[in-house]
Amino acid sequence: MEVQLDPHSEMLMQQYHELLPTLEKLSKDAKDLLTQALNEAGIYVTAIECRVKTEHSLAGKLELKGGKYKSIDDITDLVGLRVITFYTDEVDKVAALAKKVFDIDWKESVDKRKHQLDAFGYNSLHYICRLKSGGPRFELQMRTALQHVWSTIEHDTGYKSDVKIPPEIRRQFSRLAGMLELVDDEFSRLRTVINHHRRMVQSLVKDGKLDNVLLSAENFRTYLDSHPFDRLNGRIAAVNQAEIYPVSMMSYLMVFEALGMETIGEVQQMIDDYSDDAYQFALTQLAITDLDIISSTTALQYLSLVYILKNGGGHKELKTFYDIINGVDDSNNALADMMLEQSKLLSFMQVH
Predict the structure, then answer these.
(1) What is the CATH number of domain 7-183?
(2) Where in the chain is the domain with CATH 3.30.460.10?
(3) What is the widest separation between alpha-carbon atoms in the chain?
(4) What is the pLDDT of residues 78-112, one digit of tens each?
């Protein structure tokens, strides 16, 4: 249906066309400034969207309430930015950055997070902004991903249209809105709990209270930051004055799990109990070579081998070890057999 505009609204539309190049530049500049600020602050968001209001959209707005505006400058959403965050508390972080990057028109801005139960999809923070260098005002919306999805669903289903929705359907929407709001809040709460746990683990590792730290990828990575294998690597490297080449040690997490370890404390106990034997094992193999470079996982390799051998492991356990670090291959059978034969010559194995 063709939009019918009165003379005043036609005048506003003409002003819009004259302003359009400025609006397009404003849209790009505002997005670039905010994106840069978010990157510098280390705030990762799911999306930053920007748009210039189309002629069709503006015409529909002017047809309904064109008399409300004296000039095109009174329309504050000709340019719109939307920042979609993962968590509710990040909305406030984005808002704090926006205050630094833009001039905020506080009289026109509104916090729609104070809402009724069925208004979850509109639970956004809206700022009316202007670049600090001047120019037209624009709208900045900040909301979470779940709020954005809900708003899109409401729009797609026509829930907010002029069609009268039966009470039972409105009630269902309200229930779902309440559930999504709870989910939104719970995700933020869980992130806080996880961050607290991460800091607690880091503190335990730093204080050496490793028996209380579960063996997981993140905890093992934190443990590695304390360089627990450096001393043994240094002793082994000194055999041939070798250089230590750094590689990831994370693959050994699967080794420790296969050995039945459950805490970082058990890994540390292995270092404490078997470092001397691991050094002797490495010495018997490296002393007869001129190897002048070793991997940073060398200490881990010999510690694991000694642990397996001194705890009653045989061919099967050694084969599993090599399958984990080298990949499953028949050649690992030969390696397992060779380690068993060499272990018979080791002094620490003669104790049994």
Answers:
(1) 3.30.460.10
(2) 7-183
(3) 103
(4) 999 999 999 988 999 999 999 999 999 999 998 87
